[in-house]
Amino acid sequence: MTPRSRLRAADLLAVGTVGLRSRRVRAVLSMLGVAIGIAAVVSVLGITRSSQADLLARIDRLGTNLLTVVSGQSLAGSEVPLPATATGVIAGTEGVLAASATADLHGPVAARSELDTTGGVGIRAADTALLSTLDGQLAAGTFLTEATARYPAMVLGHRAAQALGIADLAGDPRVSVGGAWYAVVGILRPVELAPEIDSSALVGLAVAADRLGYDGHPTRIYVRTEVARTTEVRGMLARATNPQNPSQVMVSQPAEALVARLAAADAGTALFLGLGAVALLVGGIGIANVMVISVLERRGEIGLRRALGATRGHVAVQFLVESLVLGAAGGTVGVLAGTAVTHALAYRHGWQPLIPPLAVAAGLAAAVVIGAVAGVYPALRAARLAPTEALRTA
């Protein structure tokens, strides 16, 4: 009785990788598609997780309890100023921690000299509590005080200072406003939730009224609320600001822009994951194509093995293992490449690189599954070859 042919598990990998070791360039090219797809999936998820973590940290740091009240528009489309008493009424509203008024002064601009023709930067009147209400920080100098707010002193927003070419307070810099000189006493760091402050030159309410035509009606009020009552306060501010015409008052929450970016990031992630899935599909088709060609080229080997006693199952397993190795190798390379891309971009943007463990596990599993599926048909085709036919057509 002829002993039954056996294929030991220890020999399975060596037998299954014969074709890959003898055709290395083809093996590398065939797994490249899977590697690109897995790299795309891992890097997209990693970059998204890293950027979202950074964005959430910024939201936590900046706070979601800042509201802005701005003047609306009349039916004719003209700007409706806020009542002069609006800031005091808002500050007394239940749930409000602080309220600071500013007014955009249309007309005068701040320039480095009277001969400056670059246009200068806009001027905004601000009360002395603005910095604490916004939870802003100074890059140099001091903010407006009760004393400096009465005199021609100015604090520059971050972008305004850049536009005027003032990097620090060395040399006691001054700027020209309508032919008068104003001393720069402070420069702000970027105020992310109030970009209009970044691009403005700030003066005190008193000097704005005396010299720059400020009529006492603010155009924007920043309101810091109790965190748990932000939504409640938001619903009350329009009527508190202008009881006669609350519909002409607009109340917004600056942090909503950051939250919207999270939603946009999720939408972009879905798109790129779809592209990664397409790349994986292409990679799987590439592996299947290479395996079919391999079966055709190695008919002599298949026929010889069958003639020496190898069963159909042994031949099928050999080619299936080869396909699985291609998929797993492509997945491993893809995970490493995706991780490298995530770390590079995170380092560039100053994020903490975060690679979701699920992305790594799912990427490797997807690569193995794709390799298995791609190898099923070539393996079955190889197993169906009769020994005599395989040797005759080799």
Protein architecture, described:
By secondary structure, the protein is an alpha+beta fold. Strand 6 (174-177) and strand 7 (180-188) form a beta hairpin. The chain starts with 8 loop residues before the first helix and ends with a helix. The protein has helices spanning 9-16, 18-22, 24-62, 86-91, 130-134, 158-164, 195-198, 205-211, 230-241, 255-297, 299-307, 312-349, 357-384, 387-393; strands spanning 66-71, 96-111, 121-126, 138-141, 153-156, 174-177, 180-188, 200-204, 220-225, 249-252. The model has no long low-confidence stretch (mean pLDDT 79). Strands 2-3-8-5-7-6 form a six-stranded mixed barrel. Helix 10 (255-297) packs parallel to helix 13 and helix 11 (299-307) packs antiparallel against helix 14.
Give me the number of helical elements.
14
Q: Care to count the β-strands?
A: 10
Strand content: 15-25%
Task: Tell me the overall shape.
Answer: elongated
Q: What strand line-up does the widest sheet have? A: 2-3-8-5-7-6
Largest sheet at a glance?
Answer: 6 strands, mixed, barrel
In short:
This protein has 394 residues and is α+β, with helices and mostly antiparallel strands. The protein is built from 14 helices and 10 strands.
Topology of this structure?
Elements: H1 9-16, H2 18-22, H3 24-62, E1 66-71, H4 86-91, E2 96-111, E3 121-126, H5 130-134, E4 138-141, E5 153-156, H6 158-164, E6 174-177, E7 180-188, H7 195-198, E8 200-204, H8 205-211, E9 220-225, H9 230-241, E10 249-252, H10 255-297, H11 299-307, H12 312-349, H13 357-384, H14 387-393
